[in-house]
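Per reviewer request, we include the raw input and output of the structure prediction for the construct analysed in the revised manuscript.
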Amino acid sequence: MANVLNRIWSNDIGIDLGTANTLVFSKGRGVISSEPSVVAVYTRSKKVMAVGNDAKAMLGRTPGNITAIRPMKDGVIADFEITETMLRYFIDKASSAMRLVAPRVVIAVPSGITEVEKRAVKESAIRAGARSVLTVDEPLAAAIGVGLPIGEPAATMIVDIGGGTTEVAVISLSGVVYSKSIRVGGDEIDDAIIQYMKKAYNLMIGERTAEEIKIRIGSAFALDEELSLEVKGRDSVAGLPKTLTITSQEIREALGETFKAIVDVVREVLENCPPEHSSDLMDRGIVLAGGGALIRGLNRLLSEETGLPCFVADDPLNAVANGTGGILEDMDKWLKEND
């Protein structure tokens, strides 16, 4: 009886707790929130001023008494108190005012995190207002979210490139056959762009500008028509504002090492995949998810380097969040499997 009432009076949610963005899936409503994983606090009192979109707008622009913090680093918690505050914000935002029971929460976490890090995520969510917490590996959630047939004996392969990590997994019979997680993702791409601009042009740019460059002209494979972008920053020698134009070819070369790391981890997973599954992957190929999947030509680069077809998921940004929603639909089954 208690379980029935809990289902009626609570609003179960799924959370893609990402380094760059946090997405929230509400059962019956879909993805209801996608905001940056950023919290702005007053420097002295540590009192929270803003979370999400409002806090992201302050990155690199805050006065001395305000600090904009990204509490997640490389897919794991770097600041426990701030992460708990951020989780409370998203859980409260997702919970309906009509619900009287705290929600059950599914949280997607990188497959490479330790048990200690996983426990820290659970404890933070409980303190933030969750009734119970189920953690699920991000690549498995992503595979569910993009609609891969994970329950079949034939293998499927997912590459989920987030803000802090790249997750690669081969999945069969609703389980992970082999997976590998590296702490390389959108943040490292942004940092590589910042370092390139500093080294090549003595131009100092911030995270927001680097992200814009990545989105506007970033590519992993030669484009039919190369792109260009006007970039504004500060000359590190003269100390004055400076504007210059850069090309997609320059940025592609600057990101070569980062893309190589992604290719290498995909190769490693393929090399450790059981032979029976290798033929499945020849037919089914590789599916890309996460924000990194949107980088121009990355699927072509992976296809050329592995010899397998490579496809970008229809909704790569929401893949993991949608996957947590799929787990919420059959929560009891997943809870039993994780006992």
